[in-house]
C-alpha cells in the first residue's frame, strides 16, 4: 500500500497527506510519516508547494487528534472492549493509559512524534478520561508541529534518499524513546533513593 500511496502524492498533493495523517491519528494503519517524507521530497523537486504540504499534514493530524478525543468522550466504552480482546491493541491501550496517567498533557505532546504508536489511544483515552480539552489541544498542536516539521524537513533535505531516511528516522525515534525511558527510570530511582535517605536520617534523629 505504501508504494501505491507514494504514487498519489504528486497527483493529489496535500490532500492525500492530510488524509493519511488524519486516519493514522485514529489508529488506522497508514504510512503517514513516510508520506510526509515524500511530500518534502516533492517540495524539493518543485512538484509541490511547501505551504500546502505542511498545512495538509498538520491540518489532517490536528483534525484526527480532535476526532479521536471527541470519540473517546462520547463513547469511551469501546476502549474497554478493545482492552479485553487482548493482543497488540490491548497492550497499546494499557501502555497509553499508564503513560497518560503519569504524564498528562506531556504524554499528548510526546505521543505525537516520539511514542507515536500510543498517539491514537492517548487521543481516545484523553477524551474518555476527562483530560481538559485545552490541555489536550496544547499538547496536540505542539507535538504535531514537531512531527510535521521533522518529517517534511527530512524529506526536503534528503530528497534523493527517501527510503534510507525513513529507516534512519525510525531508528532515531526508537533511540530517543529509549533515552527518554532511561532518563525517566533514572529520575525515579534517584527520587526513591533520596526518600530512603530522608527516612533513614529521620529515624536516626529520633533514636
From TrEMBL:
InterPro entries: DedA_domain (IPR051311), VTT_dom (IPR032816). The chain crosses the membrane at residues 12-42, 146-166, 172-193. Pfam families: VTT_dom. It is found in: Cell membrane. Residues 31-156 form the VTT domain. Keywords: Cell membrane, Membrane, Transmembrane, Transmembrane helix. It comes from the Bacteria. It is a multi-pass membrane protein. Coiled coil: none annotated. This is DedA family protein.
Amino acid at each position: 500500500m505504501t508504494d501505491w500511496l507514494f504514487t498519489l502524492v504528486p497527483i493529489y498533493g496535500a490532500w492525500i497527506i492530510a488524509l493519511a495523517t488524519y486516519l493514522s491519528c485514529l489508529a488506522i494503519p497508514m504510512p503517514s510519516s513516510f508520506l510526509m517524507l515524500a511530500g518534502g521530497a516533492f517540495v524539493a523537486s518543485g512538484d509541490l508547494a511547501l505551504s500546502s504540504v505542511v498545512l495538509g499534514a498538520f491540518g489532517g493530524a490536528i483534525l484526527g487528534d480532535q476526532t479521536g478525543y471527541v470519540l473517546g468522550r462520547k463513547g469511551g466504552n469501546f476502549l474497554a472492549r478493545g482492552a479485553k480482546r487482548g493482543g497488540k491493541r490491548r497492550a497499546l491501550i494499557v501502555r497509553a493509559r499508564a503513560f497518560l496517567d503519569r504524564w498528562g498533557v506531556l504524554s499528548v505532546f510526546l505521543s505525537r512524534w516520539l511514542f507515536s504508536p500510543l498517539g491514537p489511544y492517548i487521543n481516545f483515552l484523553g477524551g474518555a478520561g476527562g483530560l481538559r480539552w485545552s490541555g489536550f489541544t496544547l499538547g496536540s498542536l505542539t507535538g504535531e508541529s514537531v512531527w510535521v516539521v521533522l518529517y517534511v524537513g527530512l524529506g526536503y533535505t534528503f530528497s534523493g534518499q527517501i527510503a534510507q531516511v525513513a529507516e534512519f528516522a525510525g531508528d532515531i525515534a526508537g533511540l530517543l524513546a529509549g533515552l527518554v525511558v532511561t532518563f525517566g527510570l533514572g529520575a525515579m530511582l534517584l527520587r526513591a533513593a533520596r526518600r530512603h535517605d530522608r527516612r533513614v536520617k529521620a529515624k536516626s534523629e529520633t533514636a
